[in-house]
Specification:
The protein is α+β, with helices and mostly antiparallel strands. 19% of the residues lie in helices and 37% in strands. The chain is built from 7 helices and 30 strands. A hairpin with a 5-residue loop joins strand 4 and strand 5. Helix 6 crosses helix 7. The longest helix has 22 residues.
């Protein structure tokens, strides 16, 4: 007796109507051939990790693919007789897309490029489940021509971000976009193997990142989170794929995320040096990482962290050459960087807090000019790795510098303040005929510092013998405060290290 039964088949990756006879599944010849093809490619694969998955297409549908992870790349293959190769639309004519949303709700797109980078403003990602994604008309690589009648052609990157931020408060936003085929990186056509499989996408893992696709959702939507993950290259916005396991196995997807992240960490960064740099430093880039910055408007944008042995740098596009290193968004010497892990202290409630702040590794970097950059490093493990690198490099920079001197004024007299990581703080007369010592305090004597930015005065309060409050007028009191903080932290780290003891 034959019965029709709906059955989940992982090899076919989607629920299909199966013909059953005595509880035995009866497959058609086409289904049998497909299963044999999937089994054959798995047995022949030389990848470190491989699996059958589904990839999200531009129209929102999911298609069966075979994914292979190698040491330096991720390869996605598809059956030629079953699936169309996912390409972006070939129509380059301008088109209008209208987004309907709640007032204050983020659009759900990220952009790259701008006139300051010699390229148009392009959509670099469309977050799944966002108002932009619901239109199914804004695509990866679209050029922004207008946003609510505001021309975007010729805008620098920061101005384009401002236009999108202002549109956040409106309930209807009209986009005029077009595709730019001259910026597409089409892959070379490859022959189909004996089993009908063809390589449709190759994502280099250098500077790539992998994350849960729905990490932007609110806590009220947690039940919909982690049903897929996205792998995206930082060097080319078109090298991206959103993948999921056919059975929705989150444990297996988490293993894939970990494997991709580990493979990315194992790829050495290119040898690049930033110049000029002070004596004792090389300017060699020691860390290059992609992060997601949270703006005051609540929107997110991609930034790139480059840490040398001398300074901490943020870029709006990935620096791949030495000349790219010369145009950072911000560059601060490591001696004057303050790095903190976790959510901002000013937040008193988790209501409305972005899920990235709760799930992913958040951190902030403060600079002496009062700016604070608050971003997600990707995962908690990524943030710990970045924090370790920054703190190690700050400590190494302090040891290399050892001491630094700043001109100042005290009681209408020229003085020189010297910070020495080993001996503390020194104040000397700095007139033409007088360089004598006024006082010396180890860092342990310092009880409190108070900064008056308007008058650029730093008040140092000391305890113990010779204590008191010393008001120093400095050209930039904030830099001195940050350097003092890092010098004191380095001395505390040194004191906390165990000494070598010899048993007599």
């Amino acid at each position: 007796m034959y019965t029709i039964r709906r059955k989940e088949n992982r090899l076919l990756s989607r629920p299909d109507l199966m013909l059953m006879k005595n509880d035995t599944m009866c497959l058609s010849k086409a289904q049998e051939a497909m299963i044999l093809s999937w089994q054959a490619i798995g047995e022949l694969s030389t990848a470190t990790k491989h699996s059958h998955m589904q990839m999200r297409m531009a129209d929102g549908s999911w298609e069966d693919v075979f994914v292979e992870l190698f040491a330096d790349r991720l390869i996605i293959k598809a059956l030629q007789n079953k699936m169309r190769i996912p390409r972006l639309m070939g129509d380059t004519a301008a088109r209008t897309v209208v987004i309907e949303k709640m007032a204050g709700e983020a659009l759900g797109i990220s952009i790259t490029g701008g006139a300051d980078y010699g390229m148009p403003v392009l959509i670099s990602s469309v977050r799944e489940g966002s108002p932009a994604a619901m239109t199914r008309s804004l695509l990866l690589g679209d050029e922004l021509l207008q946003v609510d009648m505001v021309p975007c052609s010729g805008l620098v990157h920061v101005d384009a971000v401002t236009v999108l931020t202002e549109a956040r408060e409106r309930t209807q936003v009209k986009f005029v976009v077009r595709q730019r085929e001259d910026f597409l990186d089409m892959e070379e056509e490859e022959s189909v193997d004996d089993y009908g499989w063809k390589k449709i996408k190759t994502i280099p893992l250098a500077f790539a990142y992998a994350e849960w696709s729905n990490s932007h959702l609110s806590s009220a939507q947690k039940d919909k989170m982690h049903d897929s993950f996205t792998v995206r290259s930082a060097t080319n916005i078109f090298m991206a794929a959103t993948l999921r396991m056919p059975g929705g196995d989150r444990r297996v997807m988490a293993e894939w995320l970990q494997a991709i992240t580990q493979a990315r960490f194992n790829i050495p960064i290119p040898m690049m040096r930033k110049s000029p740099y002070p004596e004792g430093f090389t300017g060699l880039v020691l860390c290059l990482k992609r992060v997601h910055e949270k703006l005051e408007s609540g929107n997110w944008r991609d930034l790139f962290v480059a840490v040398t042995d001398y300074d901490f740098n943020l870029y709006t596009s990935l620096p791949l050459t030495t000349s790219d290193l010369k145009v950072p968004l911000v560059s601060v010497p490591l001696l004057a960087v303050r790095y903190r892990s976790g959510i901002l202290k000013s937040r008193t409630t988790r209501v409305g807090v972005h899920s990235r702040e709760l799930v992913e590794g958040m951190c902030s970097v403060r600079t002496p000019n009062g700016e604070c950059y608050y971003f997600s490093a990707g995962t908690l493990a990524d943030e710990k790795s970045l924090a370790r690198i920054v703190r190690e490099r700050v400590s190494a920079a302090v040891k290399t510098t050892e001491s630094v001197t700043y001109p100042a004024r005290l009681n209408n007299e020229d003085v020189a303040l010297t910070l020495n990581v080993n001996t503390g703080m020194w104040l000397h007369h700095d007139s033409r005929g007088d360089k004598s010592l006024m006082w010396h305090h180890p860092f342990s004597h310092l009880k409190q510092t108070e900064e008056d930015r308007e008058a650029s005065v730093l008040h140092l309060e000391f305890g113990g013998e010779g204590g008191g409050i010393v008001p120093l007028a400095l050209e930039n009191s904030s830099i001195v405060t940050f350097v003092l903080f890092n010098f004191m932290a380095a001395q505390l780290d040194k004191a906390a290290q165990p000494t070598n003891c010899v048993e007599c």
